[in-house]
User: What shape does this take?
Amino acid sequence: MKVAIVGLGSVGRGVAEMIAKKSLGLTVTGIADSTSGIINAGGIDLHDVLDVKHKTGSCGDKKISANEVIKKADYDALVEVTPTNATTGEPGLSYIKMAIGRKKHVVTSNKGPIALAYRDLKKRAEKNGVVLRHEATVGGAIPIFHMIEHGLAGNEILAIFGVLNGTCNFILTRMSDEGLTYEQALLEARQMGYAEADPTYDVQGIDAAIKLVILANTIWGNGVTLNDVNRTGIDLLTPDALRLAEDEGSTIRLIAEAIPKKGLLRVSPRIIEKSHPLVVEGTLNAITLETDMAKEITLIGRGAGSIETASAIIGDLLFIRDRYVERA
Ligand code: HSE
Assistant: This one.
């Protein structure tokens, strides 16, 4: 299957590295970062591209833009991994529309366009006979949407509870286990590359709320938006509050909850017992689904990271290849 990649930040580089390293039957015919691009119908040498990107900061020809790659390259699926903008969704939103308009499948890790326009994008994809997949937008490596779509097919999902932001979980873990201050722990999370470019997205619960909106819209198609989420972050949490919880054998985690029958859509720091399945350490994410037949299912995994997120993207690409491209 032929693939084009737009975005060569940490996630895009992870995807390129894994396609170059593994024999997945994927050929990259177009690639672009924010300042340059390459189109090569015969297949691009990704080792070279990653090397040039590492040395110069750009991946290719400055005269070739991401727009051009999307419009002109010969590919079956676009991997859209540009940075998240939760207000406009751009540039990812336009890139996804452009590729769907050319009847290309799209795989994205970009939370902005999916949180803002999932229904519209899905309709466009259906109209054009292609699919849009977004496993990497929620829970990093955790295959939550594959599990819902396949393993839990036929189940009614009644509620979602989750630790959806690795940065907050890392900060809370470091504060309670090592006695770090909030500021020290946040600095560490930023240095290790877990936090968003603007870390207020993480600590104010915005990133977790965006992921909750994506989950809710994908599962229930209820058209909720970021404004519908009752949101409190961890930025105002004091070490004393954590210590008090610990004294009672509990701890504090930033929990996202969605229970449509109760009209509940909330992200907030919650005191929970240490033995609870959602009490995970460091940058791990955990998602519990309550269902009618399977009852409770919890998935735990790495919520962020270049190769971990690439895992979710590659899973979507291979699903599209096997289901739609090789049979076409
Ligand atoms: N900043 C996000 C987090 C990255 O910490 O979970 C993954 O979406």
Summary: The chain has a mean pLDDT of 96. The chain is about 40% helix and 20% strand.
